[in-house]
């Protein structure tokens, strides 16, 4: 056997070992992902994933601060919004059925929320304080309408926890 044949044989043998090692790593990774999925995301006895809060089934389990955070994030716009942004915001606020005065007050509060959310990592606390501010500045009927709307929207929310790493 010549040196060239030996080199070719060793080259093929190394390639085979690399392929087998790659398959092994893929199988190992897939096994770990499957085990992680079974440990953290498998359905429990009522058909939902562990730790998931499904607002369509249990809206009372959706925390108020989270509901307000999602609502405020969805309807807030930047200061000096474009006509399209303003129209989008008014369209999203229409179902709340606020008076024109209450809508203007809420838009000002939402602008403050939009600005503040870029400088905080605690959106839950920001949403809670923004909700308190809204309740203190809106008329009694406006506060009630906003509270009822957000409580009703909990039925459309689904909270999924971050996976454990």
Describe the structure.
With 165 residues, this protein is mainly alpha-helical. It has two domains: 1-40; 53-159, no CATH class. The protein is 65% helix and 2% strand. It has helices spanning 3-40, 64-75, 83-93, 100-117, 123-137, 140-153, and strands at residues 53-54, 158-159. The two termini are 53 Å apart.
Task: Please outline the helices and strands.
Elements (H helix, E strand, L loop, with lengths): L2 H38 L12 E2 L9 H12 L7 H11 L6 H18 L5 H15 L2 H14 L4 E2 L6
Antiparallel strand pairs: 1-2
Name some characteristics of this structure.
elongated, 6 helices, 165 residues, mainly alpha, 2 strands
Radius of gyration: 27 Å
- Structural shape: elongated
Number of domains: 2
> Terminal Cα separation, in Å?
53 Å
SS elements, strand count: 2
- Regions with little confidence, pLDDT below 50 for 5+ residues: 24-28, 33-47
Please give the largest β-sheet.
Answer: 2 strands, antiparallel
Give the topology string: H per helix, E per strand.
HEHHHHHE
Total count of helical runs of at least 4 residues? 6
Question: What is the topology, as strand order, of the major beta sheet?
Answer: 1-2
Mean model confidence by pLDDT = 81
| Beta strand % | under 5%
Label the structural class: mainly alpha
The oligomeric state is single chain
Helix fraction bin: 55-70%
Concise overview:
The chain has 165 residues and is mainly alpha-helical.
């Amino acid at each position: 056997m010549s040196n060239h044949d030996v080199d070719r044989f060793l080259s093929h043998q190394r390639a085979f070992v690399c392929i087998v090692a790659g398959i092994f790593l893929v199988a190992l990774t897939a096994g770990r992902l499957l085990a992680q999925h079974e440990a953290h995301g498998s359905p429990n006895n009522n058909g939902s994933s562990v730790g998931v809060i499904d607002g369509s089934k249990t809206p009372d389990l959706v925390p108020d601060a989270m509901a307000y955070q999602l609502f405020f994030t969805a309807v807030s716009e930047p200061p000096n919004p474009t006509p399209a942004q303003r129209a989008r915001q008014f369209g999203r606020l229409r179902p709340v059925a606020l008076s024109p005065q209450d809508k203007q007050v809420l838009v000002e509060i939402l602008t403050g929320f939009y600005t503040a959310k870029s400088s905080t990592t605690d959106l839950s606390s920001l949403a809670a304080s923004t909700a308190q501010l809204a309740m203190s500045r809106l008329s009694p009927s406006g506060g009630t309408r906003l509270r009822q709307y957000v409580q009703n929207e909990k039925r459309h929310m689904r909270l999924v926890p971050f996976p454990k790493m």
